[in-house]
Write a structure and sequence with these properties.
Among the domains are: 39-95 and 577-668, no CATH class; 672-782, no CATH class. The protein has 28 helices and 16 strands. It has a five-stranded antiparallel beta sheet, with no helix packed on it. Strands 6-11-15-14 form a four-stranded antiparallel beta sheet, with no helix packed on it. It has a three-stranded mixed beta sheet with strand order 3-4-5. It is globular. 48% of the residues are buried.
Length: 831
């Protein structure tokens, strides 16, 4: 069969777009194809936090659903649990594995955006330019470098989910609903609820725009049908991920995301994160200009000043080497730390602003509305009245921290609006005066801002001059004390130096901002020039689109490589977690169940210790809230009584030369022990207070427990796995045993000689049981409750989604074949 030329053209444009995305991915991540890897922080942490889970699967073939190696033990629902019924996610796995990460992230993000733009109605060549603007957004390179894998996959699938919703509300609603269910299932399955939540807000904005249009056009009945299908697709998408969602929802109230019971002093804990914690990473109002000018705020927190700039010169005046300047922060924004700016690209921003003048109808308004809304949310504590209002009004919004992450939606709306502007130019039906006016306004707004900051930036901002001076005073007092240069402090030089360096830092930050302002202005002028030439009929639409794509890549790639340069890659051996001599000493101790406190790292923000040992600490953003209370009150102070009850046998301490050294404590309570007394508390606050006043070896803090310890005896841990523990004990009378394991009643079941037995919470976070006299066996088993029923819902929903996607594919194939047959040339007999 000969395919008609339109079909061949479509296949050719698709192949060209995919090849373009692949080539750009290879350029940006070239070392990957030479066998090197990125030492991504969160990937390394993930290796540590999942080690005992993966080891248990390999040894027993059973998914433990619990990790014992982090924070004393916690459910693995938000870490790594196998959900076999997630068939949609499993079906996509062979596709996304065609290319290894991190290059796969850029390739698939661009591809997903390209497909979405096709759904919206943009032609394939224009869509390729818009897709590049999305995939090359600097924020993606920042989170790739940090190893935020689930966040990146959620950002990959989000455009597809939005495209499905767009088709459901505006196009073929049945095909749109099937695609929405499929893509929303993948989006939810990426397991980053925060990104998904923000894009659902964007979907709500689209829905409101369609509602208004339907009301004006008196098509509310059709709109209601489309809404019902969209809602049904959402229900199926949730259902296909019902297992992880169910267990996450069950688990969240127990975590810091659900708040601490100490906040109210009752079992009904405060709902959600505290406002201060949730808004710690708030985008500054002024910092928002780095969407247009990359180093507007000095870049990232880890980058310093040049070794031969104004700061280095100021240091030299005080006898210090210019290299010290490289250790001082060029960043002067409001965030406590940032890996770099959320730079969207001057070209993309110009085209988006142009779209505000060229794009017809409601698209302009809902895209502008949701972009502005997300920007206001990103300001967080810098726009607190609005943030507090949204915490009260938006369901679930108070479960998320790092409000600056809302800008991921703006990172999508800007390329979308820019692509719509280019596609509008392709229609060739614009009034010339309107087009010229749009170009002038877009260039005036974006280019005017760049010109203003380049010329008059020094008069508009202080560039952290005052805070820099005070910071330098404190910093250099410390530096001089550490270097034994007390004479500088005695002479009062640090204060004088701080003032001089504050001015020098401001001057160098101004220079950084001006350089990038001129740079952005250049790209805006070039892009506006290309559009002007097109409007003047000097170039055609294909050349205009090629110029836009080239300028987008030329603009964004160099900035991306500032923050994720090729020399960030290392050999695979360097990314592995290597055991130290201290680790090897501890691993030689084969008794099960004891824990380790590693003080050579930040113990409660590091999971590498968990790679080898049962760690008192760990790394996770949703640890159990009671354990966080314990960290805040006792563990951060290395309280020996609490460390003993957690069976902390070893501490890893830095030696004089900085190498880790294993130190045996020798006072730990053991894996389990009998107590002679119970101290009853009425509230969680009393529980944690009492913990500091008792001897945990002889007394246990409980709440509402009527048990009466009578006997004594011996108890030992005979077998340990993350989800299974077996103890052997002998007691001369009924006794109360405390187990140095984290209490979690939604999955742990206790057995005495094979029969289920009750247990209760003790010592704020541990488990305890009243045990009968004699010689017996105690077993603990963990299994996610209602597993079969929950997985059945997931399986049924997944099958319906896959059937719907298959039906859309089959119908589309039949229609294309029929169209090809109709277009086939015939001979004179009509055959």
């Amino acid at each position: 069969m000969k395919f008609p030329k339109p079909a061949l053209a479509q296949a050719g444009s698709a192949a060209a777009a995919l090849l373009l995305f692949l080539l750009v991915s290879v350029v940006c991540f070239a070392p990957q194809f030479g066998g090197e890897v990125l030492p991504q922080h969160d990937v390394v942490q993930y290796e540590g936090m999942t080690k005992d889970i993966r080891d248990n699967r390999a040894a027993t073939g059973e998914d433990p659903q619990w990790t014992g190696n982090m924070f004393g033990g916690m459910p693995a629902y938000l870490i790594n649990v196998a959900y076999p019924a997630q068939l949609v996610k499993e079906a996509a796995a062979p596709v996304v594995r065609l290319l290894d990460t991190p290059a796969a992230f850029l390739f698939f993000a661009s591809t997903a955006m390209w497909i979405m733009l096709l759904i919206v109605g943009v032609g394939p060549w224009v869509a390729a330019a818009g897709a590049l603007a999305y995939g090359l957004s600097t924020y993606f390179f920042l989170i790739i470098g940090a190893g935020h894998i689930t966040k990146m996959w959620a950002a990959v699938y989000a455009p597809l989910m939005m495209g499905g919703a767009w088709m459901t509300l505006r196009g073929n609603m049945w095909a749109g609903a099937a695609l929405t269910a499929l893509f929303a299932s993948l989006e939810i399955g990426a397991n980053h609820p925060q990104i998904t939540y923000y894009f659902l807000l964007a979907m709500a904005a689209l829905w409101i725009a369609e509602l208004v249009a339907a009301a004006k056009g008196r098509t509310l009945r059709d709109f209601a049908r489309r809404t019902a299908l969209l809602a049904g697709a959402g229900v199926l998408a949730v259902g296909s991920n019902f297992s992880p969602l169910w267990y996450t929802a069950q688990h969240t109230p127990e975590t810091i995301r659900g708040g601490s019971e100490l906040a109210s002093g009752s079992e009904s804990a405060s709902d959600g994160l505290s406002l201060d914690y949730a808004t710690a990473w708030s985008y500054g109002k002024t910092e928002s200009f780095n969407l247009l000018i990359p180093d507007f705020m000095g870049g990232d927190s880890g980058s310093g000043f040049s070794a031969d700039g104004p700061v280095a010169a100021a240091l030299h005046e005080y006898g210090l080497q210019g290299s010290v300047a490289e250790q001082l922060p060029a960043y002067w924004g409001d965030q406590p730390y940032t890996a770099g700016p959320t730079y969207l690209g001057a070209v993309a921003v110009f085209l988006a602003v142009l779209g505000c003048f060229l794009v017809r109808g409601r698209d302009r308004w809902w895209l502008l509305g949701i972009s502005g809304f997300m920007l206001l949310l990103a300001w967080g504590q810098n726009f607190m009245w609005f943030t507090e209002l949204m915490f009260k009004l938006l369901p679930g919004y108070n479960k998320f921290r790092t409000v600056s992450m809302t800008l991921v939606v703006v990172q999508w709306t800007v390329p979308l609006m820019g692509a719509l502007a280019l596609w509008r130019l392709w229609q060739d039906d614009l009034d010339p005066r309107r087009l010229r006016r749009g170009i002038a306004w877009a260039a005036g707004i974006t280019g005017g801002l760049c010109l203003l900051f380049a010329v008059a930036g020094g008069a508009l901002f202080d560039f952290g001059r005052e805070t820099g001076a005070s910071f330098m005073t404190e910093q250099f007092v410390y530096m001089f004390q550490q270097a034994g240069m007390q004479e500088y402090i005695d002479r009062g030089m640090p204060e004088e130096m701080g003032l001089a360096l504050g001015n020098a830092m401001a001057a160098e930050r101004l220079s950084l901002m001006q350089a990038d302002a001129w740079r952005s202005l250049l790209f805006i002028v070039l892009t506006a020039g290309a559009v002007w030439l097109y409007a003047a009929r000097r170039i055609g639409k294909y050349l205009l689109t090629a110029a836009a794509a080239l300028l987008i890549a030329a603009d964004l790639i160099p900035v991306d490589l500032r923050y994720l340069p090729h020399d960030s890659f290392v050999s695979p051996q360097r990314r592995r977690i290597a055991a130290t001599e201290a680790d090897r000493q501890i691993l030689a101790d084969k008794e099960p169940g004891f824990r380790v406190l590693n003080l050579t790292v930040s113990p409660f923000n590091d999971a590498t210790t968990s790679y080898f040992h049962r760690s008192v600490g760990g790394y996770h953003g949703a640890k159990l809230s009671r354990y966080q209370d314990l960290i805040d009150r006792y563990l951060s102070l290395r309280d020996p009584n609490v460390l003993d009850m957690l069976n902390t046998r070893y501490e890893i301490l830095p030696s004089d030369d900085g190498t880790p050294t294993a130190v045996r404590r020798g006072t730990e309570n053991g894996a389990a022990w009998f107590v002679g007394e119970l101290a009853n508390a009425k509230t969680p606050q009393e529980e944690i207070d009492l913990l500091g006043r008792i001897d945990t070896k002889t007394t246990a803090v409980v709440s509402g427990v009527e048990a009466r310890p009578q006997g004594t005896g011996e108890i030992r841990l005979a077998e340990y796995r993350p989800n299974y523990l077996r103890y052997e004990y002998t007691a001369d009378a009924p006794a109360v045993a405390v187990f140095s394991e984290i209490y979690y009643d939604k999955g742990w079941t206790a057995y005495v000689d094979g029969r289920e037995a009750p247990y209760f919470r003790a010592d704020y976070v541990l488990r305890a049981m009243e045990l009968p006299a004699g010689t017996h066996t105690v077993e603990w088993r963990f299994r996610a409750p209602r597993w079969r029923a929950v997985e059945a819902v997931t399986l049924l929903s997944s099958l319906v989604i896959l059937a719907g996607a298959g039906a859309v594919l089959a119908v589309g194939t039949v229609r294309r074949l029929r169209h090809a047959k109709e277009q086939r040339p015939t001979n004179g007999t009509g055959r």
